[in-house]
Amino acid sequence: MFESLIGTRSNPVKNIVERGSLKAFSKAIGDESSIYIDEAVGKRSRYGANIAPPTYPRVFDYGEINGFDLPNVGLIHGKQSFHYERPLLVGETVMCSTSLENYYERKGKSGLLGFLILKRYGEEPNGKLIFTEEQVVIITEAVRKGMKS
Amino acid sequence: MKMANDFEVGTQLEITLPPVSRLDLIKYAGASGDFNPIHTIDEEAAKAGLPGIIAHGMWTMGNLSKLFTPYFEEGFLEDYSVAFKGMVFLNDEITLQSSLVSIQNDRYYFDVLAFNQNEETVVKGSATLKRYQ
User: Fold this and answer.
1) Of the partner residues B32, B34, B84, the one whose CB lies closest to the CB of residue A78
2) What single-letter DSSP state applies at residue A31?
3) Which value does ipTM take for this structure?
4) Is the pLDDT of residue B49 over 90?
5) Sheet holding A93-108, edge to edge
6) pTM of the predicted model, to two decimals?
7) Is B2 left (phi over 0), alpha (psi -120 to 50) or beta?
8) Which of A15, A18, A29 to mutate to test binding with chain B, by most B CBs within 10 Å of its CB?
9) To which H or E segment does residue A93 belong?
10) Side-chain half-sphere of B79: how many Cα atoms within 13 Å?
11) DSSP state of A89
């Protein structure tokens, strides 16, 4: 059902690695390490600033793929991966976009399952890549039927 | 802290988290912006056919990354991938584990794992720590 959207990518959206948001995120994963939180430690570090936890990019806005609409309920997060060229720095601007990499269906025990592969990009304002993220979302038959109707 | 001296193939890092609380998941929903109600509202979890609310997979993956945080002055996680194998429920006691499987030049390759109090795997994957030269 998403076949026609394979290969489409959203327009990049400007995001900022905001100190307050990063602190709340660090707390929420139980990791208030000084490299994330303590300004003096960040300044003294090789980065010259605090950095973000590896899974932090989930808070960014990646824009919308035209014609792509997923329900929030009933999706299964199957896999998740991150690749970094370097860590994200507190205060920096990141241009974020998302693309629908692939969609396919397979027979499962509970009916036909849809597998959606979404890839996300975080780039410097000059276009240099900082990180990519890939997510496999599994859509159950019940949810897919609900979306069609 | 010197990574090269700390680590050899077979080195294991491990943390057991306190039992998962509703507040943990409410905090994660707020901090991440993932407000899927199956993580916070009993009725919505029941409607989705679940025996109770479940933790965000990304909450577990986020927690798991803290095994590596002490080394982020010396290197960074270049790659971090997991598969979500099982659900995490309220009051589950999750153990996070990583083991070093190989070292190649400036890269340290780890397997990562999270399992519950019944030793059922909930998250399984790998992480590559790249050391600065």
Assistant:
1) B84
2) -
3) 0.95
4) no
5) A13-16, A93-108, A111-123, A129-139, A75-84, B75-84, B121-131, B107-115, B95-104, B12-16
6) 0.94
7) beta
8) A29
9) strand A93-108
10) 11
11) B
